[in-house]
Amino acid sequence: METKIPLPLFKIDKEFNILEFTGTAADFFPETESLYQIIDRDSHTKLKNCLINGDAALTFEINAKTKQEPLELFKVFAQWKGSEAFCVFVPANQDYHLVHKQLEDLQKRLSETNFELYEKKEQLSSAMDRTNRLSGPYIELSDTLALLPIFGDLSEEKIKAIQDNAIQKAYDNKPERVLVDFTGVGVVEDSGVLQLKDMVLVFKQMGMDVVVIGLSPAQARVLKPYRTELELDFERNAKVSIKKWLVKEYL
Amino acid sequence: MKLTINNFTDALLQGDHAKSLSIVNKWRDNYTRFYIYNKLITPAMYEIGRRWQANEISVAQEHLATAVCDFVLTQTEHDLVRYSPAPEATPKALFFTVEDEHHYLGMKMVSILFREKQWNVKYYQSNLPVDHVMNEIVQWKPGVIGLSFSIVHRANGLTSYLKKFSELDYEPEILVGGRLMNQYDFSSIGPPNTTFIQNLEELDHWFNQYTENRRDDLDGDKDTTSII
Hints:
By secondary structure, chain A is of the alpha/beta class. Helices cover 46% and strands 24% of the residues of chain A. Chain B contains nine helices and five strands, in the order ααααβαβαβαββαα.
């Protein structure tokens, strides 16, 4: 057999005894008598199945023990000629290992990003909640008058976030009238209106009148269908209404 | 869409993230994580190993399937992240795969199952040098240390890990898992507090034992009692 072939090549018999091998084979693998001894124990069954039950010429992957590594992947090309077979062992490409390594790094990054995204989402929702809670401050104007300006879009979450504080403060101060100022409100959502209705009801049950001021035309349109349900007083703007109620109180 | 193990295996091998995930999500509607890991993911990965042995697929395809499976597992963990215990909360468990070991999915499933049971879990995937692991253990003092390995020629390495654990100044429970536990008997080499886990069912059994044995401690910690 030609021993100068630049790849590990073994000639074996039916029992997988090594009959001849190339110089490169000697460079790669420790010298043994049986092919089994250079194949990883977990790959023995595969070797047997492939070589015995396979076709005359076949290709398969196998893990082998080399001089350098306890486990290395090889692609084997084998061909039977009578009772002897030739097996060429081609080492799995280095590029492949590189790609494998990169794939692994990518995976690691993906799973980290996954958690980071989750954390950011949590941070964002707590920031949103905090913003909501801060966007409806209760302001005492006089003994009988309080102002509750709302900032941002009127949503269910927003009213839920501000109502506890507003109702508690109103209970402590007992004003006759609460002015809910819409000047700083953007979009009014339907669910927000329903929640607002609940809050207004609480104020009413505590004996306070609620007056909505500073509605924009667009907001007025959204609120119109709820007008009777809300049982609210509306005033044109903050200046007029504050003057009206304060003047009433001090004159 | 069919939801069988075979369909899942094929989806993994095709690198089809979306399909793999939606199959698992469908199972998730009716089954526990434990059941899915035990009855869907583990059999699928074993099937992939069998197909390589049968020369039906290449190692490259196997790696792709592993990557997709890893992605799917991470998604099943997602809703557990909400529960993030304080760094020193107990009970603590630390999991890792031995150096140069790329079969990490089993360990990952185990770590998620511990997390599901509200353990404080650290999980180190692939390729962590021994010294790093030991440093972490000495400082963090986990009550349970879990490791896994799947390649025969690393069995000797296992002995040296176990020896290092026996030199610790406290006695953690040690769990050793991995594919080889099915085929070889390692029970002679572990210190007395070592348990060899062959599959997820044995892990579940271990869990029940552990909770049983530690009930008094747990009651003490939580200020509850199991007597009444």
